[in-house]
Amino acid sequence: MNKFQVALSILALIMFSCSNVNKLKESRLETERSANPEFLEGNLFDVDTFNLEIIPPSSGVQFFRDGIMFLASSKNEENMLHDHLSFGTIKSYYAGIYEGTLFKYTDFSPTFPFTFPSDATTFSSDFKTMYFTGISKTDNKEKIYEATHSAGDDYQTGWDVKEAPVSFCQENMVYTHPALSVDGSMMIFASDKKGSTGGLDLYITHNKGNGWSDPENMSSTINSSGNELFPFLDSDNNLFFSSDRTGGKGGYDIYVSWFNGKTWNQPEILTSRINTTADDISFRIDRKDGKSAFYTTRDKSGNRHTQLFRITVNENIAANKTKNLSQIMLGMSPTLAKGMIASAEKKDSEPVIQQKAEIKSEIKSETKAETKAEVKPEVKTEVKTETKAETKPSTDVASKPSTSTSEKTVSADKKGTVIYRVQIITTSISKGSYPISINSKNYQTWEYLYKGAYRTTVGEFKTLSEATVFQNTCRKSGYPQAFVVVFVDDIRSTDPKFF
Question: Which pTM was predicted?
Fold first, then answer.
């Protein structure tokens, strides 16, 4: 190999090394952006009301197959989205979700109504084994039961329910809200059994193949002097749950604890876009792709009104930056994000350091001269194209409810009138424009159609700071989920430049 070939080889190695360094820097930058709550709250996910009444004893819904299971009244099978479901037999249903609404609902268990709380169930990955919460006939307290599907994959028959609770439910205590890991190796649940540090603590049990191990308290790292309920394990075993511990935003709040591969870290409270002064409970992520979730907000007043909310990843912003909602939620905590960054970067940085050392050694021995090379990182320009519409066209244009247009996203580079508004309500039926009073001031609402649902907004502002102040006013005035949205020439934009 002559000197010219050696020089080319060295230059190639330098370029390869610099490329890796640039990728690592970009990765660190994106992780740091993910750890910035202000960036995330305005962009990476959307929170919208979901038009489904929560019927006791349920406090929420549960993901099942390609949709959700929920309790509803049999009287209204022709239209599952009535505001008031009454005078019928309460039973469980299963339905798919299309553009924020339910469709093609069927009986969850045709052979018997299955009146148990939907959110207090958990399924194996193949959906053929279920653990659910029922009332024991022995002591009239909540216990965890097992059921297996009695037929093939058509799910048109029912579930075979074992009469006795699972083996670890031995004491005259509460055992409720089971959460099964994806691989079925462990289950977390809530109980007030002896050894609890508060009211209800979270416990963990392991599948031994022929039964479950004796439950262990998840310790003071997870549990508090209050109550811990509604545990949920995502596909990476990160733990979400609700707690009324001190230091929250009020009532029950939703927390997340990062699973580092061996144990769970100190829980962190989720963003104020989700947690409110009311009870925020029953958080569930769709483990199929991790890009949608449900939770319930319940008033602490006498009527105990409940509102179901749906969270979805904002694909226009989050694509290629964050894979799922768990990653977004974990990234919003600087403490958790730091630990995730450290563990990820340790592995990524070592090969780059080794390559640099090899290059330096080769340059010294072969050329005996200092080689300087300026390598500009490759710049990739993403071109957005309009994809072919699905069978049912979605809409993303702020317009009169009767207007039907193809979905659009406006770039920040487009010149036009930029207006910030505060979104307060999402419904499946148009309400049009109407007067409303917020903090003793009168406003006229403005409605737009987006992703198949009608969104009601209030106010018009030229700057994000002004809109944010009004957002906080709305949250204190009976609209806890209010958030800022931006429009360019009255078209909804999700471009991060505006935030």
Answer: 0.64
